[in-house]
């Protein structure tokens, strides 16, 4: 059980930009019966973190609050109704209510906590959790991606995008990576992308049809929304699956419904956080599969940068610059961990 009553945390006292965030001393979180307390080792930076501090996310916490929702660390306390997680376990987790992770301790709903597979350190697990958890669920459960199919990844330089490129190749797909520039597409090429489309200079629809001999995409995973979505809504193959993950372009697009009708393709929502809460056993099975892919060298989570807790504003600014490819992590408590062979 945590004996601390206060801790260091990043605080959002008013809605604004990353540079408005401050390091402060706050009370440790009160634990609900179905929650666990985690001593945070590493927190992940994700695009929704940039929205929640501006008051533009679907979750609007009362001010002041601590942002951040993805953590890895050690369980130091469990609520009285928790049976699936034990004190001392190394875990990946989503912060309760979708915020609170940029701190020394965080509360998490026990059904949104996943044991870290043996052999993975806290940093690799943090780079894996949301990005690869989302991409794997999208490609496997939602799209049923098959070997030999063509996968288009919109936003292939981000954490989920790079994960989708790498997993797509591991699953035997032909992968087209769509990024703003060819420079930003270099990590996706390193991860095995077969084709690259740089939408600052090229038309996405023409590029996809050219690369597929006019057939279009069997599967498209879209993190961007906006004009990229509109291009892909006209570039799907018969029987295709257009996966909606997010809208980092800032534009939530509308779809002309005659397009999926004429092309016989599906538009499929991907909400991994809800999948984790509703299907924890299947989600844990996904992570065992991901761990096997890591052990066999088929995927390697790409960590683009590591920052101390005091530099969360710098990490969020780097994310928003769109010059970073891969996962940004926050080293919170610098825990030492004992690794186990797989």
Automatic annotation (TrEMBL):
Ranges of residues in domain Enoyl reductase (ER): 16-330
Domain of life: Bacteria
GO molecular function: oxidoreductase activity
Pfam family of the protein (one): ADH_N
CDD domains: QOR1 (cd08241)
InterPro entries: ADH-like_C, ADH-like_N, ER, GroES-like_sf, NAD(P)-bd_dom_sf, Zn-ADH-like_protein
PANTHER family: QUINONE OXIDOREDUCTASE-LIKE PROTEIN 2 (PTHR43677:SF4), SHORT-CHAIN DEHYDROGENASE/REDUCTASE (PTHR43677)
Protein name, entry field: Oxidoreductase
């Amino acid at each position: 059980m945590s004996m601390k009553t206060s801790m260091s945390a990043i605080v959002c006292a008013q809605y604004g930009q990353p540079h408005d965030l401050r390091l402060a001393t706050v009370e440790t979180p009160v634990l609900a019966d179905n929650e666990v307390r985690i001593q945070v080792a590493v927190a992940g930076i994700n695009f929704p973190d940039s929205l929640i501090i501006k008051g533009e996310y679907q979750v609007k916490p009362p001010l002041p609050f601590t942002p951040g929702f993805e953590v890895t660390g050690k369980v130091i306390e469990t609520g009285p109704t928790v049976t699936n997680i034990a004190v001392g376990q190394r875990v990946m987790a989503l912060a309760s209510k979708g915020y609170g992770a940029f701190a020394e301790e965080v509360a998490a709903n026990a059904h949104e906590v996943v044991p870290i597979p043996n052999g993975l350190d806290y940093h690799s697990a943090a780079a894996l959790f949301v990005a690869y958890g989302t991409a794997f669920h999208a490609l496997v459960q939602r799209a049923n991606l098959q070997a030999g199919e063509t996968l288009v990844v919109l936003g292939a330089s981000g954490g989920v995008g790079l994960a989708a490129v790498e997993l797509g190749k591991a699953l035997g797909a032909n992968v087209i990576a769509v990024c703003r520039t060819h420079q930003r597409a270099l990590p996706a090429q390193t991860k095995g992308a077969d084709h690259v489309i740089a939408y600052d200079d090229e038309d996405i629809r023409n590029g996809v049809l050219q690369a597929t001999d006019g057939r279009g995409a069997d599967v498209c995973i879209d993190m961007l929304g906006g004009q990229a979505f509109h291009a892909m809504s006209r570039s799907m193959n018969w029987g295709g699956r257009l996966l909606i993950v997010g809208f980092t372009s800032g534009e939530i697009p509308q779809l002309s419904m005659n397009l999926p009708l004429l092309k016989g393709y599906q538009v499929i929502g991907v909400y991994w956080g809800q999948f984790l809460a509703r299907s924890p056993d299947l989600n844990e099975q996904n992570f065992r599969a991901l761990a096997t892919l890591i052990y066999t060298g088929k995927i390697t989570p790409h960590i683009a940068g590591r920052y101390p807790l005091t530099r969360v504003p710098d990490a969020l600014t780097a994310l928003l610059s769109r010059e970073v490819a891969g996962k940004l992590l926050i080293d919170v408590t610098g825990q030492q961990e004992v690794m186990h062979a797989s």
